[in-house]
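Propose amino acids for all 252 sites.
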């Protein structure tokens, strides 16, 4: 039995419709770092907040997905990513923790939020060179790769702190020469603390790393492709969120 041209046309149109439909709405678990990196991202009072949350919520609302954010320590995050315990991870980067990826193929999105990890100093010594830094503070568990050679040689002593506020106050009171941190997070934190606003600054001539936070997945690379397509259509929305929250303060 032969189909008429009209019926073939209807079938073809239906197939095109199916192919052009957006991805199916899903319940998604996004693994996030169990730290407060406000205003970029952070967990406070058990709730994931910040610019990243607003961007991911906007994506999910557009696509019909339902999101659950799962805060976890960094090593546990990679274990869950590798073995499918979470659908997506934020933030991530192809340069981070290759030893923890266990040979798994990871799909990474296009850049979502740009950042600089760099050295914050007292404003009056803003122009100093690396040779003037003898003590460097950082958040506990954070590795200042840009200072690696000087740390290995012993010319710079590394001191860790679990609190952004305490770390920045150590810089202000000259207990350490500088703090190696996310620049936007440090400057926004300083602006909210009594006596710190305007006293500290990012020293761009000192060792630093410029990169971008990305969304990643091992379990569902098709979601990364969907997110990239959404990013391409919603650049202004994302830029507005980043600008309003100060998530790239000191980067541009």
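Proposal:
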């Amino acid at each position: 039995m032969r189909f008429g041209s009209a019926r073939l046309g209807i079938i073809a149109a239906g197939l095109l419709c199916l192919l052009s439909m957006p991805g199916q709405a899903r319940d998604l678990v996004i693994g996030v770092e169990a730290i407060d990196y406000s205003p970029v991202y952070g967990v406070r009072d058990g709730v994931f907040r910040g610019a990243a949350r607003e961007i991911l919520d906007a994506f999910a609302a557009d696509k019909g997905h339902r999101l659950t954010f799962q805060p976890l320590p960094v090593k546990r995050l990679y274990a869950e990513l590798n073995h499918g315990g979470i659908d997506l991870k934020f933030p991530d980067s192809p340069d981070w923790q290759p030893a923890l990826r266990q040979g798994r193929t990871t799909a990474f999105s296009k850049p979502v939020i740009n950042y600089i990890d760099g050295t914050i100093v007292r404003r009056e010594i803003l122009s100093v060179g690396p040779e003037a830094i003898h003590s460097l503070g950082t958040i506990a568990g954070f590795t200042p790769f840009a200072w690696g050679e000087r740390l290995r040689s012993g010319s710079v002593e590394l001191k860790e702190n679990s609190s952004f506020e305490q770390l920045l106050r150590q810089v202000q009171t000259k207990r350490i020469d500088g703090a190696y941190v996310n620049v936007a997070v440090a400057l926004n934190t300083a602006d909210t603390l009594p006596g710190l606003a305007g006293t500290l600054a990012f020293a761009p001539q000192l060792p630093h790393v410029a990169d971008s936070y990305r969304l990643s997945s091992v379990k569902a690379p098709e979601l990364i492709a969907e997110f990239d397509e959404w990013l391409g259509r919603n650049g202004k929305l994302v830029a507005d969120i980043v600008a309003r929250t100060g998530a790239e303060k000191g980067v541009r």
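The mean pLDDT is 89. The longest strand covers residues 113-122.
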